[in-house]
Write a structure and sequence with these properties.
4 copies of one chain form a homotetramer. Chain A has 12 helices and 14 strands. By secondary structure, chain A is an alpha/beta fold.
C-alpha cells in the first residue's frame, strides 16, 4: 500500500483553483503531489514547486516536458495521474497527451474549449482505457448524493419540474479591467471559449440538475446577457429547459447578481414529493411531501443512504464544506486508480466521479445555450 | 367622522377569499360591513349575512338587487363602496354596475375575465370618476413598499435583473375532481379565464415585479404546462421576461410544486445593489451591496421609509402577516373614500392601492403568456 | 345572534397596547367596541372615543363612571365585558369593580401589581362566577397550541429540559429619560411593580413554558441585572429553573440585548423528541427525533391538531402574525361569553384562554425571581 | 524549506478524533505525519500506521517508545512535534514526556484530567520553552476570529451579556451500554475526569466565550444533571456566569437535547451592538446595532479583518467547515514551529492558537461547575 501519486499541470503561485485541487487531494491522506508543471514560465513553475516542498527535478518547465520525463521514471516513482487545473483553452492538449502517454487524468471543468474537443477526448479515453475524472465539485456534496439516491428510488415520484440557479455577483463591475486574473481569462473568448457565465457556472447548474435527477436536458431556450459595458462574453443568462422525460424547468446563472456569493441551488418537484438544496448551506437537504411535514435531512446521520455516508467524514453538526466536496471527487478517483493497481473492480462509491461523458454533455449544453440566444431564445436541442 | 360603509358581492358561507376581505376590512376599525349579496342563491346569501350579524333587509338576493336598493337609501345609510370577491368571470359585470351607480369599487384580482373587459372597465373608471382598487395583496406588505421606495431612490442602481417566483403545491393532484371549491373554479376555463396558474398567481408575480421595480415588462417568452392529467388549464409555467428599460428576468409560477405553500418571492439586482424578499417571511427584506455586508431590514423600525411606516402597526418583532397586508389595501382605500367625503386630496399613502391600470396590465400579461406558450415560447409583447 | 359588546378601560390616543387589543377584538367580526374609559383625563377619554367612532355618551370620564353607567343600561345595549389595557398598577381595581358589577373581564398582563392582588382577584372570579381572561398573547399562536397538544400526547416523551428566552433590545439606553411613554411606566416601580424586565416579558416566557409543557415551575435561582445607569428596576435577568416533574431548564429575558426585537422562543427536550419555536417566525414549529430527520410543522396544514386548526384563518403560507394570535384570545373569549348567552357549555377551543390561575402563577414567578436575586440567586420556591 | 513533521499519540483504527487531527494537519500541505504510537496495543498501532502509509519502523508500540526513539533520530529526520489525541486521562503523561524530551506538543482538549495536572503542565511549558497548542477547534473559524477582532476594537461597546450554548442530543439514551467507544470513555469518570458534558463540550463553550469577548469568567452557579439512568457523570448542565468586568451571562451544554447535532452558538450584547454566531452555519456572523439594520458578515469577503482573512482559503460562498477550522489551528501552530526553525518571531496570525493558559482556564471551569453543582448551584469562583 502506498499513496497515489499526482502530477499537476497549472496551479502556480497566485492561481486559485490549483490550490483548491491540492488541498482537496491532500485532505484524506490518499494522494501525494509528486511533480508539477505549474506555469508556462519555467522559472515560475520551479518557484511554485519549491513552495510546495517538491523535489526541484520534478518541477518541470512545461507540461509536455513533465509527461515525457515522468513516463521515463520507474513505475514505483512516476506519477499515477495528472491533475489539469489550467484555464479552459488549455484543458484538451495536456489531457490528450497524458492519456496517450498512459496517465490517468483528473481535469478541471469544463472539459474542453468546445464540443468538438470534448468528443475527441471521449473517444481517446475509450481508446486508451485510461481513467478520466472531471471536477464538477458540487456533485461531491453528501446531500446532493442523498437527493440523487432518493430520486432514483422514486421517493419524489416522477419528476415534473426542476429549478436550478447559480447566481454570483463578483463580475457586476468590469473587474477584468483591473487585471484580476480570474476575471481576466474568464471574460476572454480566446481563453474561456464561447461563454463566460454559462461556461463557468451555467455548466455546473446543468451538471447538477442532470446528476440529481438522472434525467437529460433535451432542449433549451436561452436569453444570455452581457450587462457590463465592453465585456466580450455573457455575464448572465436565463434559460427555459425541457427534459427528455417531459419534465420542464428553469436554469439561470449570473455573475452580475450583486450580493450573491456562490449561490448554486436546486429545487426538484415530482408527482409526490419535492426537494431543495443550497450549496451555501450544503449539509441540509429539504424534502417535502403532499400531506405531511417537510423534513430536514442532514449530513452525517445514520438515516442517510450509502452514497451520502461514503462521502462524509464527521458526525452530524460538524459542517463539511466546499473542500470536502472537492476532496470526495479526488478520494473516489484515487480509489479507482487503487482498484486498478490492486487489479480489482472499483466500488460504486469509487466510480461516483464525473467522467468525460458529463464533460461532453456540459460542452453540448454550453454550445446549445449560446446558439439559442443568438436566435432570440429559439429552442435548440442538445445532441 | 364615521366608519366607511362596505357592501360585499360574493363571499358567502364556505367561501375563502370573501372572509379574508372581511377580516382585512375590519382590522383597523375604519370600515364596517353594512350589506351584501353573498351568493347567487338568495337564501344562501341571507343565511350568510345572518352569520355576519347584518340586518336581514340588507342581505340581498343578488348583486343587481343590492346595487339598486342601496342606491335608493339615504346618503347617511347606504354603502360607500362594494367589495367584489367572486370568481374571475363575475368581476366585470358587478364592477361595471356599481361604477355606473356611483359606487366606488374594491375588486379581487385579476380585474376581469379577459383583457377586453379590463380595458372597458378602465374607461368606465375614468368616465365615472369613481374610485377603483384591486387587491393585489402582496404589494400591501411594508417591506415590499420599503424595497419599492429604495429602488425608486436609486439605492440599487439601474436595475438589470429580476427573478420573481410564485410556487405552490396545492394542485399537484387532481383536487378539482374531489369537489374542492377553490380548485374547481380555478381550473374551469369558463369561470377562471384563459389561465389557471398564470391568472391566479402568475399575475401576482407580474404585479409584484412591476410594483417593486417601477418598470414595465415589455415582452415574454412562456412555456406553460399542464402536469395533472385531464386538467383544462395550465398548472405551471416558466417565463423569460424583458423589461422596457433593458432589464431581463425570469418569472415562474406553479401550483404543482409539491411542498411549496405560497412561496411568492422576488430578487432584484441593480448595478450597485441587490435585494431579496419572501412573502412567507414578509417582515424581512435583504439588501446586498458590492462590497459591504448584507443588511437585514425589518418591519417596524424607525429606519424605514414613509410607506413602510404607514403600512405597519406594531413594533419590530411583532410579526405582521397576510391579513395585515390585505388590511393595508383596505385602510388606504378607505382613506381615499374618506378624503372624498372630506373634500380633500388623498395623501400619497392613501393613494398607494393598485388601480384599474394595474388590472389592465395584469390581464395583458395573462394573455401574453398564454399566446407565447401557444407559439412554443416565442416572444410576445405586452401592449 | 349579535356581536359581543366590549367596553375598554385605558388605551387612549397614543397608547400602544390598547390599539392592539381593539384590532385583535375587531379582526374576526365577533366583537364590537361600544364604550370606553380611555384615559384618566375625561376630555382625553372623549377625544379618544370620537376617533374610534363611538357614541359620545358612551365615552366615559373614568372607569368607575363607565362601570356604573353601563350597568344601568338595558341588557340589549350594555357592554358584555371590559377590556383592561392600563399599566400594571391599574389592573386590579377596575377588574375588581367590573367583576363585582357582573361584567366579564379581559385583562392585559401581568394580572396585577403584586401576588396578593392576584390571589384576591382569583377568589373574586370564583365568587362572582364571571369570566376572566388574561392576554398572554403568545400562547395564542397556532403552532404553540400544536406543540402543547403534541407534548400532552407524549410525542416527545417525558420532558427533561426547557430553554425559554425572551430577549429584546429596546431599553439598551435610558429611553425613559426621553419621555417615551412605554419605557417610562415600565421602569417605574410605582406603576410597573417589583420588576421591569421579568414582569413585562419574563412572565410571558414563564407562561409559555408552562402552557406548552403542561408542567409547573417549582423553583428558581435568578440573577437579575440593571445595566442602564439610574434605572430603578431590572432590565435583564438569567434564571435557572426546575420543574415539579424533575425537568430542568433556563429562562432568560432581557431588554438590553441590542438588536433583538421581540425574540421570544422556546426549546423543549423530552426523552424521545425535541421541539423549537420562535415568535418572530411563529408559523413554523420544528420537531426533532432521536433517529430520523427533523420535521417542519407549519400553520394551516391539515396534519395539525384541533387546537392549531381552530386558531388559524388562512391556508398554509399566508403568514399569521401577532395580531392574529392576539385575536385568537379575543375570539375564544367571545366564544365563552356567547356560550353563556346561549346557555351552553363552552367548547374546548373557546376555553383555551389564559385565566386568573395563570395570572396568579405569573405573579408568583415575578415575586420569586425578585426574591431569589436579592439573595444572590439562592433557590426560591413558587407557591 | 520542508514540511513540518508530526508524530501522533493515539488515533488508531476506529478512533474518531485522531482521524480528524490527521486530515486537519494534512489539508494545507504544511505538515506531514512521519510516525505514531496509535494504540496501547503495539500490534494495533503498527496496523494503524500501515493504513496511513507510514514506514513500519516508525509505527511505535507505545508513546514512551516513540518519544525515546524519535529523540535519537537525526535532526533532519525526527518528528518536530507530537499530536496527542487520546482520551482525557492520557493527555498529561505523554505531553509531559514530550516536552521534557524537547518536542513541541499539540494536544486535544481538555488539556488534562484535572486542574492540578494542567497547572503542572503550564509550569513545564514555561520551563522547557517548548510550544504547546490546544485544539479548541471552534475558535479556529474565521467568523469567530472576526467577532473577536470587532469586540476588541470596541464595535459592540462595553460587553454586558453573553449567552453561550452547546446542545447535543447523541447521549439522550444510554449509548455507552451498546459499547459505542466515544460514549463509553466520555461517561467513565476514570477516563474522562470529573465531568462528561461540561468537560467535553461545556469547556468548549467556556473557551469560545472567553476567546470572543476577551473577558474572563469569574464565577459560576451551576445546576448539572444526569438524565440517563445509571450514567455516572453529568449529561446536561445549566450555568449562570459572571465575568470579571461585570458582564453577566448564561452557559448551558447538553448531550440529551434530542435532535441537536453539535449546536455550539454564542450571542454577545454590548452597550452599542450585538452579535450572534452558530457553529452549524459557521460562515455567517450577525452583527446588530441600536438603530440600523442588522448586518450579515460572511467568510471570505475583503471587508473582514486580518485574522478572519488569514484563516480562510476560498472566496465567499464556498463554505469552509469544521475541518478547515481545525486545520487553521494546525497551520498556525506549524507556523510557530517554522518560525522557530527560521529563527524569527512568529506572526500574530501564527500565534493565534490556544495555549496551555486556555488549558488551565478550561480545567478550572470544569472543576468550578462541578463544585457549584454539588453545592446546589451556589456561586463558585474560578481561580
Amino acid at each position: 500500500m502506498r499513496k497515489i501519486r499526482m502530477g499537476m499541470i497549472g496551479g502556480g503561485i497566485g492561481a486559485f483553483i490549483g490550490d483548491v485541487h491540492r488541498k482537496a487531494a491532500a485532505l484524506d491522506g490518499q494522494i501525494e503531489l509528486v511533480c508539477g508543471a505549474f506555469s508556462s514560465d519555467p522559472a515560475k513553475s520551479k518557484e511554485s514547486g519549491k513552495g510546495l516542498f517538491l523535489a526541484p527535478e520534478r518541477c518541470y518547465g512545461s507540461w509536455q516536458e513533465m509527461i515525457a520525463a515522468e513516463a521515463k521514471l520507474p513505475a514505483d516513482v512516476r506519477m499515477d495521474f495528472v491533475a489539469i487545473v489550467t484555464p479552459n483553452f488549455m484543458h484538451f492538449a495536456p489531457a490528450k497527451a497524458a492519456l496517450e502517454a498512459g496517465f490517468d487524468v483528473m481535469s478541471d471543468k469544463p472539459a474542453t474549449f468546445d464540443l468538438a474537443e470534448a468528443k475527441e477526448l471521449a473517444a481517446l479515453v475509450k481508446k486508451t482505457g485510461c481513467l478520466y475524472g472531471l471536477t464538477h465539485t458540487y456533485t461531491g456534496y453528501p446531500m446532493v448524493k442523498q437527493l440523487r439516491e432518493m430520486i432514483a428510488a422514486g421517493k419524489l415520484g416522477k419528476i415534473r419540474k426542476v429549478v436550478v440557479e447559480y447566481p454570483q455577483g463578483w463580475l457586476a463591475t468590469s473587474l477584468e479591467k483591473s487585471g484580476q486574473k480570474q476575471a481576466d481569462w474568464r471574460t476572454n473568448p480566446k481563453l474561456a471559449g464561447a461563454s463566460c457565465c454559462m461556461g463557468d457556472i451555467g455548466s455546473h447548474a446543468e451538471n447538477l440538475a442532470e446528476y440529481v435527477t438522472g434525467l437529460h436536458i433535451s432542449e433549451v431556450a436561452a436569453d444570455l446577457n452581457t450587462f457590463v459595458d465592453g465585456r466580450l462574453l455573457d455575464d448572465d443568462g436565463n434559460v427555459l429547459i425541457r427534459f427528455a422525460n417531459g419534465a420542464k424547468g428553469i436554469l439561470h446563472a449570473s455573475q452580475i447578481s450583486v450580493g450573491e456569493e456562490n449561490n448554486l441551488n436546486i429545487r426538484v418537484y415530482g408527482e409526490t414529493g419535492g426537494a431543495e438544496w443550497h450549496q451555501i448551506e450544503p449539509n441540509t437537504l429539504q424534502i417535502q411531501y403532499l400531506d405531511k411535514p417537510t423534513e430536514i435531512w442532514r449530513t452525517g446521520h445514520g438515516y442517510n443512504g450509502d452514497f451520502a455516508k461514503a462521502n462524509s467524514r464527521t458526525p452530524p453538526g460538524h459542517p463539511e464544506g466546499y473542500l470536502e466536496a472537492f476532496a470526495n471527487l479526488y478520494r473516489n478517483f484515487a480509489g479507482q486508480i487503487r482498484a486498478k493497481l490492486e487489479k480489482r473492480e472499483p466500488s460504486a462509491a469509487e466510480l461516483d466521479v464525473p467522467t468525460i461523458e458529463e464533460g461532453v454533455r456540459g460542452m453540448a449544453f454550453i454550445e446549445a445555450v449560446v446558439a439559442s440566444s443568438a436566435k432570440n431564445a429559439a429552442w435548440v436541442k442538445l445532441d
